[in-house]
Amino acid sequence: MYREEILLQNYQAVRSSLTQAALRAGRNPDEITLLAVTKYAKDEDVLSLLKRGVITHVGESRVQQAWARWHEDPRFAQFAQVTKHFIGHLQTNKAAKAAVLFDFIDSLDDIETARALAKHAPAGKVLNALVQVKLTQKQTQSGLPLPQARQLVKQLRGAFENIRVCGYMAVAPQGASENELRTLFRAVSQAFKEDFADCPGAALSLGMSEDFEIAVEEGSTLPRIGSLLFESKLEGV
Ligand SMILES: *Cc1c(COP(=O)(O)O)cnc(C)c1O
Fold first, then answer.
1. pLDDT by residue (tens digit) across 99-143?
2. Total number of domains constituting the chain
3. pLDDT higher for 69 or 200?
4. Is residue 234 part of a domain?
5. Which residues have C-beta atoms less than 6 Å from ligand 1?
6. Residue 49 lies in a domain
7. Assigned domain for 89 exists
8. Against a cut of 0.90, is the pTM above it?
9. Domain range for 46
10. Left (φ > 0), alpha (ψ -120 to 50) or beta: where does 167 sit?
11. How far, in Å, CA of 55 to CA of 66, rounded?
12. What is the CATH number of the domain that holds 166?
C-alpha cells in the first residue's frame, strides 16, 4: 500500500473513533476538532494529509523546528491558513518567534511567558492561549495544578489586550487506569465549563493517541493525536 493511503486510513480510523466516542457521550461530533500533532511526523507525511485537506489544526512542540517547517519551507507556504498550536514547554527566549508563528499557545502556565508573548505578538494579532493543567505530582511535568491554573486564568483575563485565554489543556499521567483518567479529565472538564461558559470558541484539549476516546467522552473538544496518525501499523512502510 502506498504511504499516502496508509496515512489517509489512519486519519479515517481516528476520525471514526472520535465520532463514536462523541456519540456514546451524547455529544455532537462536529464540536470536536482533531489537532494533528506533527512534531515527530515527516514533512512528506504532513504534506500528504494537508493536500488531502483533512487536517486543519496542527500541534508542534519545538519552536525552532516548527519555524523551519511552517515559516521557511516553501512547500508549506500554500497551507498558511492551517491553525498552528504550540503544545510544548515554551521558554521565554523563544516567545518572540512563537508569538509570530502560532495561532494558539496551548501550554501557557505562567504570567511571565504571557507577558513575553504579548510584547512580541505582531501588531493587530490576537494570540489564543490555553492554560496547561498538570495532572500528576511529577516535577518534570509542565502545567499548574488545577486550582492554580484556574487562578492564572483569572489573572490573565484582561491583563493583555492581545492574549485571549480560551481554555485548558492537560496531558494525562502515563499508566493511569481508565477510572483514574476519567476522574482527572472530569475535574478539568468541570472547571472548563465553569470558567469558560461565556467564551465562544473556547477549547478543552484533553486526550492523545492512547486516551482520546475517554477524553472525548469526558468533554474534550480538541484531542491531540500524533502517533495514531503518522505511525504505520504495517512493518516497513
Ligand atoms: C506529543 C504530544 C502529543 C501527541 O502524542 P501521541 O501519543 O503521539 O498522540 C499530544 N500532546 C502533547 C502535549 C504532546 O507533546
1. 999 999 999 999 999 999 999 999 999 999 999 999 998 877 899
2. 1
3. 69
4. no
5. 37, 39, 61, 87, 171, 208-210, 224-228
6. yes
7. yes
8. yes
9. 3-226
10. left
11. 16
12. 3.20.20.10
Shortest-distance Cα residue to atom 4 of ligand 1? 226
One-letter amino acid at 179 equals: N
**DSSP letter, residue 143:** S
C-alpha cell at 132: 496547561
Residue 171 burial (C-beta neighbours within 10 Å; 0-12, 13-18, 19+): buried
* Contacting residues for 182 by C-beta, under 8 A, at least 6 apart: 214, 217, 218
Check the CA dihedral 95-99-103-109 and report its sign: positive
- Give Dmax over CA atoms of the chain in angstroms: 52
pLDDT digits (tens, 9 = 90+) for 12-46: 999 999 999 999 999 999 999 999 999 999 999 99
Q: Is residue 233 part of a domain?
A: no
The residue whose C-alpha atom lies closest to atom 12 belonging to ligand 1 is 87
Collapsed DSSP state (helix, strand, coil) of residue 198:
coil
Q: Please report, as a single letter, which amino acid is at residue 133.
A: V
Cell of 49: 494529509
The number of beta carbons lying within 10 Å of the beta carbon of residue 71 is: 14
The answer to whether 127 touches 134, Cβ cutoff 8 Å, is no
Backbone angles phi, psi at 205, to 5 degrees: -100, 90
Q: Which residue has the least CA distance to atom 6 on ligand 1?
A: 226
Which atom of ligand 1 is closest in space to residue 224's alpha carbon?
A: 10
Is residue 237 pLDDT above 90, yes or no?
no
